[in-house]
Amino acid sequence: MKRKRHSEEQTIAILKEHEAGVKTADLCRKHGISEQTFYNWKAKYGGLEVAKRLRGLESESAPKAHPRNFTVGDYIDGPCLMALFLNVGGPEFSE
Asked: Is the pTM of this model over 0.70?
């Protein structure tokens, strides 16, 4: 399989240049690609920047670890945890 000359990020940067108003022929000459390659990239990577941004937002909002990897201490605050492990407390327990 042939090695790619441009990374995904470079391809997206070239497409952004085109969106900024640079003519296709000038852009292709500058980066050493054919117009057909440019249009193939545009078809393939055209909406990719938005998709990457959405994936980034999803990963930020997703929990960092699977819930079964948490301990009891991750869910219960100090006084409750103390009451559980010391077997102290009940309705009359107060700080």
From this structure: no
